[in-house]
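Here is one chain, start to finish.
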Amino acid sequence: MEIHVATTATTSNRNLIGGEWVAARSGKTFTSTSPANRDDVIGEFAASSREDVDAAVAAAKAAYPAWSMMPAPKRGEILFKVARILNEHKEDLSRLLTREMGKVLPEARGDVQEAIDVAYYMAGEGRRLFGYTVPSEMPDKFAMAIRKPIGVAAIIAPWNFPIAIPAWKLFPALISGNTAVMKPASDTPACMIRFTELLLEGGIPEGVVNVVTGSGNDVGHPLVEHPDVKLISFTGHTETGVDISSRAAKTLKRVSLELGGKNPIVIWADADLDLALDSVIWSAFGTSGQRCTAASRIVVHRSIHDEFVQMLHKRAAALVLGDGLLETTDVGPVINDKALERIGGYVEIGQKEAELVVGGNPARDGELAKGSFFEPTVFAEVKGDARIAQEEIFGPVTAVIPVDSWDEAVRVVNSVQYGLSTSLFTNDVNLAFRSIRDFDSGLGYVNHGTIGAEAHLPFGGTKATGNGHREVGQSALDFYTEWKSVYIDYSGKLQRAQIDMEFIDQD
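Its structure:
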């Protein structure tokens, strides 16, 4: 088994294919700019096409035999080194992330830390990757189930967590013995390029990880449809996920989808309102509301509705917009002007459906005019079936919905097409356990906001949030491995399962 370690020397406008940094076959590039300042050009990146995808998949396929045959503990040692290198470069990687994506620096550090955590966790799985043994129903026969790698994985990553989510997808794929072709979002290619440079520094062999930058049409579609791609992991818009699933179904590829969310925080009459308020501010306006787990619905018992809305109004109005690299900034920009327009459109809809409490406008004062900033926005007296309470906005907008009873709260929580994250604030242990039972979601929190998932537990949702697979934790390995059932008969004679049972000697 011969494995070569790839070079880390690169320029920003190149793809990583087979261990080499190469320009797009067409020679074309596209520009990435900072959402906090459109004049801040991050770099020029390869505008790739089908030919580049074909080369990357071929490289991943060629690397697969040696990588999959490497003992899993050895693969784990490489991921341990990757984790250490990511930790050493946490600050510069976080600053690049803030500059290119916009989230405030403390959040960017959390994004990178998530990748570090997943690297350490999945490195440990190299000495587990548990299968299992069970008793056979026949004498002198051994039965076990083992995990096997599958092949080339296509990893299509979003822009809102440009380091953490690629790590969620890549590290379980690698520890399982698969190779990968990664496509970053067009808004955050620099983050993935730098992330990949650090992977190579950690000793990832040539061809095991490949990166192709470019648009969804020019790179995403050929990658999804490529006959040598066996697995696809995608996080992004629901419509795109449905399209990917349809394309992949033609060749029976395994597909994992993490899609939309419309996540509620339920605040009951007995709740600690100060704690609930802190969590709402963090969950609704962290990452400028651009999280799949963002709290875009606040379901409040009517007896405390007015008091809580006043508290929320005061805190939201005091949040400081600005460049995420500045220590004084509470809320950074949204990803681009297209997002700014979409959010503004939903605010117009909301003003016809409910009471606008605070915000509601793009922020264009002074330096903010150079970027894509939107004021933290709160609506009150929102009905559960209003569009702003039903549709994913993906911006710093939240809707406060009053309810009179637990049954009504459950109906409101479960009335949307998504089921990612739910939260309940209460001091009633009975309600806490009812929320676990009654709220239809993949993540459930009590006295905690809707964000804060950890690397060693499954991440994913129900309904239109995805297609049933889970990221991170041991559950991620079920997507990236095949189960193989093995039977070893050492009886020296024909034994027919389910037929010869009655003839087994009972003495």
